[in-house]
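Troubleshooting: if your tokenizer reports a length mismatch, compare your output against this known-good record of 225 residues.
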Amino acid sequence: MNSYIKTLENEFQRNADTEIAVGQKAYMKNHFEFFGIKSPVRKEISKPFLQKAYLPKKSEIETIVKILWNKPQREFQYFTQELVFKYCKQFEKKDIALFEFMITHKSWWDTVDYIAAKITGEYFKKFPEQINKYVEKWLTSANIWLQRTAVLFQLKYKHTTDTELLSYIINSLTGSKDFFINKAIGWVLREYGKTDPDWVTEFVNKTELATLSRKEALRIINKEN
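Known-good structure output:
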């Protein structure tokens, strides 16, 4: 495990570019440090570490996640969430606590959106009995990133989207002044509108949404009409 982490760190350091890092840090509002590795290069570096033959044992993942998540450079968090996704078929019920750790530490849209739509999205497909408990917990929390996750975990569900639950989640957050919440509401509605535009149109028309949410929700539908 230590060798796995150290080798990854060496590869990131070897490909670091301080000039690119300055721009990446500015783009993320100076919240995080960066090695300065552009996404295509980072993904090439990551490939060997994500191959099935070289993946760590599932039992080691929580430790690896917390070590990498606590490192300052943002590339480590990007890698970590991609690593976790490799284990989606091996997710255990208890893993939701680890996902909450990832959502609530070093939180920003660039990691939370991946965790919400891909990691928690897959987790709740495997453990649907956990949905109501955690959706309610996240909605009533004071954490906008847990709330955003509740909005977005069905982002890629298409025809399997639970519209009753989606309505409940959105209505629970109606009146929020937070940009990230209202943007997420618009995004999930816009995405589901590709599957059922009539439902989205009706929902938007009967719901008091923020202007941003409404605009985002109907952007594609309005273009097609």
